[in-house]
Amino acid sequence: MAPYEPEQDTSEAGELRVGRRKAARYVVPVAVAGVAAATIGLVPALATSGDPDLPKVTAQELIEKIAASDTQQLSGTVKISTDLGLPSMGGMAGGFGGGGGADRGGDDEGGGDSAADPKSKLMELASGTHTLRVAADGPDKQKVSVLEDAAEYSLIHNGDEVWAYDSASNEAYHAKGFQVSGERGDKGDKGQAEPPAGMPATPEEFAEQALKAVDDTTSVKVDGTAQVAGRDAYRLVIEPKQSGSTVGRITVAVDAKTGTPLKFTLTPSSGGAAVIDAGFTKVDFGKPSASTFDFAPPKGAKVTEADEHSAPGRDFEGRDVKGRDFTDKAKGGKEFKEEDLNDLKVIGEGWTSIAELRLPGGQGLPTAGSGDVPPDAQKLLDSLGDQVSGKFGSGTVFSTRLINALVTDDGKVYAGAVTKDALVKAANAAH
Questions:
Q1: pTM
Q2: CATH class as words, domain 330-430
Q3: What's the whole-number mean pLDDT along residues 242-249?
Q4: Cα–Cα distances in angstroms (integers) from residue 326 to residues 159, 223, 380, in the given order
Q5: Which of 15, 87, 119, 167 has the most CB atoms around it within 10 Å of its CB?
Q6: Assigned CATH class of 10-307
């Protein structure tokens, strides 16, 4: 293994920020933007072996290599393992309005829920091990196929169209008028909208988010080499300098030849298994066949159209370009207003930033005793939360291995990738 220069001092943070901004801008568009897909089942462990002897590079040079990467075409298989310390969400999706089922109503064209709707797959990414087959040919053609035991879920973006198909239910979801540039075109009454936002699905997308966090509160260094999916790679390590964050370290394996991130691993400060581990098991940087991105619904498939969600400024989840709901059901369906952000504040900086906001109505969580929550739902909330108290009064902390949130009895919420003690300290300081 080649020697490496010591960790870079944060006096270089300005240069690092320039590099990571470029990297975030030019990272390869390998999956359908904001793909909301997952899978069931296991695949062989990620193929990593050996420490290839590569020329030494600094963290700055490696970030610039990522920024200069112009990978527009690839295909391969990605394995994602997520361990947030939550129960599996797959079977719960239907109870929260997602997922499929034969009892749903709705016509074949427009309206109604669909088992193929990408947002119905979103919660499944929160836990377990998933396998995705991905392909990309520039910014206008991407495909993600979710491999299940006896079925397959596919999400295809081709030009201004998005198709999703669930073979288990033989249902398809279709949306037109989409583009990935983020610019809104003038298409009359319908306009253009972006593909649905969702969790990252590839090492590139995870790495983009991590690089956005590089600042004076961050340690960045190159820590050896690895081989991922048969390719030589450098290991870029990103770590918080502050105490109190739930993030221990982030490791990104960067392809030595192309600068493409091949593997992303986030380890919590509490230790143990990675919270997120996403990497290629196979990858090919050749041009995929044009037929890869072709799709026509199979005979007899139920097709749900998303045209009714394509009004200017909305995506097909019924949100505006900032991701906000257009209506507030608690307020009788009134149009969303900026003040509905409930005085959102950010406490602290960097990895220990905490968001503070008020719940609607200035009250704490509803309870079974008030008649607002079914008893079974109350039991679930109680099992997920820990009671805490301090100068702020009392409240409940809901914890995962990465994100924690404190909901006080007087209707305030403190949330971030920080420890429970950090949340209580922030609430006390704001009291």
A1: 0.71
A2: alpha beta
A3: 93
A4: 27, 46, 29
A5: 119
A6: mainly beta
